[in-house]
Amino acid sequence: MDSEVSNTDIICRVCRSEGLVERPLFHPCICTGSIKWIHQECLMQWMRYSRKEYCELCGHRFSFTPIYSPDMPRRLPLKDLAAGLLSSIATAVKYWFHYTLVAIAWLGIVPLTACRIYRALFAGTIDAILTLPFDMLATENLASDIFQGCFVVTCTLLAFAGLVWLREQILHGGPAPRGRSCGERWSGC
Ligand SMILES: [Zn+2]
Ligand SMILES: [Zn+2]
């Protein structure tokens, strides 16, 4: 991007103020006239807001050049390289740990708990309910219990979703007409 700080009638197309030495105006696209100039912060803000990386008027894609400090070494010091590598590894391990934990919880602990509680409740004996905490920690039939638990959890979720759907149907008296639901959405905004 080229910068220019001179003419007084050159103003930013976003905030309408002039360019200053510490806040120069740029012309990042091929637009001309009064909309040619823009502050870097105004452009960044507009890009964040519009989620576009090109000028809406001329279609030119904005490009940025990284500017390094003059005392920047020509080669990256080994210490910084190692620190960067370590932090990348730490982030990867953290994510891996997080997803493994989530997978163990949803594919292991939740179905297993559901299956054993379900069995204890429907066994119909006080004994089964009293020994539930010990049954929870038992390791026999682990795989088949987890498999059955997945089925129990799926049925429970489906039943719950069905109840919510039924409640909606009862409260609103069937699906809303197209126009009404549209109007509701607009007034909600
Ligand atoms: Zn501006
Ligand atoms: Zn433009």
TrEMBL record:
Membrane topology: Multi-pass membrane protein
InterPro entries registered for this protein in UniProt: Znf_RING-CH (IPR011016), Znf_RING/FYVE/PHD (IPR013083)
Stored CDD domains: RING_CH-C4HC3_MARCH6 (cd16702)
GO CC terms in record: endoplasmic reticulum membrane
BP terms from Gene Ontology: ERAD pathway
Pathway, per record: Protein modification; protein ubiquitination
Alphabetical UniProt keywords: Acetylation, Endoplasmic reticulum, Membrane, Metal-binding, Transferase, Transmembrane, Transmembrane helix, Ubl conjugation, Ubl conjugation pathway, Zinc, Zinc-finger
Entry-linked Pfam families: RINGv
UniProt EC number: 2.3.2.27
Annotated RING-CH-type domain residues: 4-65
Regions that span the bilayer: 81-110, 117-134, 146-166
Coiled-coil intervals, chain numbering: none
Keyword field contains Thylakoid: no
Molecular function terms, GO-annotated: ubiquitin protein ligase activity; zinc ion binding
UniProt keyword Ubl conjugation, yes or no: yes
Reactions listed under catalytic activity: S-ubiquitinyl-[E2 ubiquitin-conjugating enzyme]-L-cysteine + [acceptor protein]-L-lysine = [E2 ubiquitin-conjugating enzyme]-L-cysteine + N(6)-ubiquitinyl-[acceptor protein]-L-lysine
Localization per Swiss-Prot or TrEMBL: Endoplasmic reticulum membrane
Top-rank lineage group of the source organism: Eukaryota
Alphabetical list of PANTHER family matching this protein: E3 UBIQUITIN-PROTEIN LIGASE MARCHF6, SSM4 PROTEIN
Assembly with partners or alone: Interacts with DIO2. Interacts with SQLE.
Protein name: E3 ubiquitin-protein ligase MARCHF6
Source organism phylogeny: Eukaryota, Metazoa, Ecdysozoa, Arthropoda, Hexapoda
